[in-house]
Write a structure and sequence with these properties.
Helix content is 30%, strand content 23%. It is built from 24 helices and 32 strands. About 4% of the residues have low confidence.
Length: 896
């Protein structure tokens, strides 16, 4: 061939490849020119250009008569050059830049060989870098060698690590060990005057940051758990960067307005949505156009001589605060796969579409190895409006006095065959993601809401777990079978509860549900007696006027009924039974779910807080001991106190995770929260890929040979299943984060709408917010964190957000200029032993606004667990690096 290039004896692979590209470019140039000469028509011949940032390669290209340009030079000649240049990797743009003369701000990383050697020797440690949500200068790394996290204090010790990076750390001498943060330190406040253009002579730690750290780090001689110092460490290397695309907005104060006329390139700061990530410098020619937009960027480099990482613009998502931009922003931020299903996936769907039906002829292959359970009085119980119905139940008396109970799960594996395009897509998505206003499906809608969904009054394929149980809910036997069912009804939790409670209803279906409820209560009590935990998490329900409404009509706390527990107990029982069965058949490859026992050190702070503030104890020696002691955490004057403690205890736990059975010893299979020795997910295959794998493994375990059978599925290689577990763990966590972020956005929109309506009614320019009950969850020396049950959110309340003696009404309190003046007048006293904060106003100080404060002005003292009256509002930042960004603001009005 004309373009074939053989590698020379002394030629490197890279040089040979460069020469091959030049040869191909030269051939195309000559070939096109020859075509033009032979053609009778005038042809517009394209220029063949070699793109290279290698100067030697460019020199050789020129010598051989080939056009060679750097990427930036090539883009500069295009019509849309300004926008395109913004999207070039910063390391490419820096290729022709002058070498920097600034001194190195950060320590050089250790070599990989040095790190590996010392990790094996135990002198260095490896772990994931985390950042405190309340103090951007405080990081931590969990390592097996220490019971408590290693603290990473300050920029110099974090050494360019970003939240999520896998880092290597070196423990500092004991005299440098410190206690965790007692101060809220916000990057937005401390670095607001940083100049994105300036890199020379900048310090890795500014004087403001140094002072904040010195003020914040308490002496290591305090008493009590919180006063004891923790080991501190510094980052000496990065094993794996967790860099990704980040959603953010341009810091308005970092942009030069003078550039509006000439569209010159300037360096600006982008503020990521994720507060754990530092500001990112980008160079752009369209700063003014991007102001007030949600934008997507990526990090390219973080050099030792730069205080901040450098990145580049990818694209704009739309205006900040608009529904479309904010929704896409949170989907991108949490790595949710939200693009439409490709044609290759849709081609895997049944050709009959919505007309598909269970074959009526029982000799059809679809009936092979299936039981006909259409005669059973099966029903489903789900949240209101549920369309992807995964599960249904039944019960009926047996002649021997026992009861048959069945859990019937949508047989998704009949439609999603191993390793086809739909299976590959589902494994990548991992889970369905539920947002307030939309659902991002794991499977195409045809399956999720129709063919697989166990809708009432139609026949559906199912995978059934059938138990024989005694009237005391003792399990006599468990059987598993593929089946065909005919659901009689699809109830909401409320509808099922009303039906059960209606004494005039005596039909067989209602009687069946009453039996299920009775058995579920017995099963629940057995779990609790075994040590299962009744934990709590904030759950709210967003109500809208219509599916497309914006803003939100209302926010309500979810009500839990007995029927919620009814469904939960039998789903848990099904998951436990299936886990035992697939582990029996596939002891190395069963896909299971575990919840590791949390180390007692995780609870030390909460134990100390309960002891000091309420004279209560928390026994964490076992899950049963913890469950019993949580039951005793009661405040007669405050019914919510117990729920608050359960929420705080939940945050002391480790996260549950999917795993491959062969990856852990059987003693480590235990699900701590459920007090079960073995567990998996089987009951939601429409929305979780883990359940689909469990279905395939169970089918193989019982010898099912009908359509969709894959006898080798449970015997797939451990490495493949471990990769699946890693991905679905990641997807599951991110789906939870995305769901919470969606609720927070809509809570903000609800507050905004309500505030605007109230302001209009009062004829005011300032939205007053709404008054609610809150509970103090954390106390710092310059503010507190308050949990508001009504909205399921936490708010940071700084010194200026305490409303003292009526001198700071909601209108003035929400005004940013007034807030700064109020903050300047405030003083506080923090008692770290008693978890209390006293806030008062300086006497006679005018705070710069000419208004002298009154002597003897009222002070306020708040303590951990206090119930407080708060004002909650949605405010939009007008100036500074947060300009255009809306946030929920919480004011403490008084102690309740």
């Amino acid at each position: 061939m004309e373009t074939h290039v053989r590698r020379g004896a002394d030629e490197s692979i890279n040089d040979r490849n460069d020469r091959a590209v030049r040869a191909a470019a030269k051939w195309y140039t000559e070939h096109l020119q020859e075509l033009a000469r032979k053609s009778q028509k005038e042809l517009n011949i394209p220029a063949i250009v070699v793109l290279t940032d290698d100067k030697e390669n460019a020199r050789k290209s020129d010598k051989e008569g080939v056009i060679a340009l750097s990427l930036t030079d090539y883009i500069s000649g295009l019509e849309d050059a300004d926008r395109l240049l913004d999207m070039v990797n910063e390391s490419k743009l820096a290729h022709d830049a002058k070498p920097k003369k600034g001194e190195m701000l950060y320590s050089e990383y250790y070599s990989m060989s040095k790190m590996m050697t010392q990790i094996r020797a135990g002198t260095l440690h490896q772990g994931i870098f985390n950042v405190s949500p309340y103090n951007y200068l405080e990081g931590s790394v969990n390592v097996p060698a220490f019971d408590k996290s290693l603290l990473i204090l300050g920029r110099d010790n974090s050494n360019r690590a970003i939240a999520g990076d896998i880092v290597v750390v070196e423990v500092l001498p004991k005299d440098q060990w410190k206690t965790p943060s007692s101060k809220i330190i916000d990057e937005e406040a401390l670095t607001k005057d940083d100049n994105p253009e300036s890199e020379e002579n900048e310090a890795v730690v500014t004087e403001r940051e140094r002072k904040a750290l010195q003020d914040e780090v308490r002496q290591a001689h305090g008493t009590g758990t919180e006063g004891r110092p923790q080991p501190t460490a510094k980052v000496v290397g990065i094993i794996k960067r967790n860099w990704r695309q980040y959603v953010g907005h341009i810091d308005g104060s970092s942009s030069s307005q003078a550039s509006s006329a000439g569209r010159r390139q300037q360096t600006v700061f982008v503020i990521p949505m994720d507060k754990r990530v530092p500001k990112i410098r980008i160079r752009t020619r369209q700063a003014n156009e991007l102001m007030g937009q949600r934008i997507l960027i990526t990090i390219d480099a973080w050099d030792r001589d730069s205080r901040y990482p450098m990145g580049h613009f990818v694209r704009s998502l739309g205006e900040v605060e608009t529904k479309g931009a904010e929704t896409e922003a949170l989907l991108l931020e949490y790595d949710v796969q939200y693009k439409p299903f490709p044609k290759t996936v849709l081609d895997c769907l049944p050709s009959e579409g919505h007309d598909w039906k269970v074959p009526q002829d029982m000799s059809d292959p679809g009936w092979k190895d299936r039981k006909d359970l259409r005669n059973l009085l099966v029903c489903s119980i789900d949240p209101p409006g549920c369309q992807d119905i995964d599960d249904a139940l039944h019960s009926r008396p047996l002649p021997n006095g026992n009861i048959e109970v069945g859990v019937h799960i949508a047989d998704v594996s009949n439609f999603v065959r191993p390793n086809n395009a739909m299976d590959t897509e589902a494994s990548m998505r991992g889970t369905t993601v539920y947002l307030v206003d939309k659902r991002i499906d794991m499977l195409p809608m045809l399956l999720g809401t129709d063919l697989c969904s166990l809708k009432p009054h139609v026949e559906r394929y199912a995978f059934s777990v059938l138990w024989e149980v005694t009237p005391d809910a003792e399990i006599v036997s468990a059987n598993f079978t593929k089946s065909v069912i005919f659901s009689r009804e699809a109830f909401s939790y409320e509808q099922a509860q009303l039906r059960i409670d209606d004494k005039s209803k005596t039909d067989d279906l209602t009687t069946s549900m009453r039996t299920l409820l009775k058995l579920s209560k017995l099963l629940r009590q057995k779990r609790m007696d075994a040590g299962a935990l009744n934990l709590a998490s904030p759950e709210v329900r967003i109500e809208t006027d219509s599916e497309l409404s914006d803003p939100v009509a209302d926010v309500k706390t979810k009500a839990l009924l007995d029927t919620n527990s009814l469904v939960e107990e039998f789903m848990l029982l099904a998951n436990i039974s299936v886990a035992a069965r697939i582990y029996e058949s596939f002891p190395q490859t069963a896909l299971l779910r575990r919840h590791a026992t949390p180390p007692p050190s995780n609870f030390e702070e909460l134990i100390t807080q309960l002891s000091k503030k309420r004279d209560l104890s928390l026994d964490v020696s076992s899950s049963l001991a913890l469950a019993n002691s949580l039951d005793k955490c009661i405040d007669e004057r405050n019914p919510f106190f117990n729920t608050l403690i359960r929420i705080m205890a939940t945050r002391c736990m480790t996260s549950a995770e999917y795993f491959c059975a062969g990856a852990h010893s059987e003693s480590e299979f235990r699900h701590y929260g459920l007090a079960s020795p073995i567990y998996t997910h089987f009951t939601s295959p429409i929305r979780r890929y883990a359940d689909l794998v469990a279905h395939r493994q169970l089918a193989a375990a019982i010898g099912y040979e009908g359509p969709g059978a894959s006898a080798g599925e449970g015997l797939a290689t451990r490495s493949k299943l471990e990769d699946i577990c890693k991905n679905i763990n990641h997807r599951h966590r991110n789906a939870q984060f995305a769901g919470r972020a969606s609720i927070e956005y809509y809570v903000g929109q609800a507050l905004k709408a309500r505030g605007e309506q109230e302001a209009k009614r009062l004829g005011s320019d300032v939205a007053p917010g709404v008054d609610e009950e809150g509970y103090v969850m954390r106390v710092f020396d310059n503010g507190v964190v308050v949990f508001i049950p009504r909205f399921g959110i936490e708010g940071v309340v700084r010194l200026e957000d305490f409303v003292l003696d009526g001198q700071q009404g909601p209108g003035k309190a929400l005004d940013q200029k007034a807030s700064k003046q109020v903050a300047a007048r405030r003083e506080s006293e923090f008692d770290n032993e008693q978890y209390s904060l006293k806030v008062w106003e300086k006497e006679g100080d005018d705070g710069g606004d000419g208004a002298k404060s009154k002597p003897g002005v009222k002070s306020m003292v708040v303590e951990l667990f206090d119930k407080v009256k708060v004002n909650v509002s949605s405010v939009k930042e007008e100036k500074g690096r947060g300009a255009g960004k809306r946030r929920v603001r919480v004011l403490i009005l008084e102690k309740a």
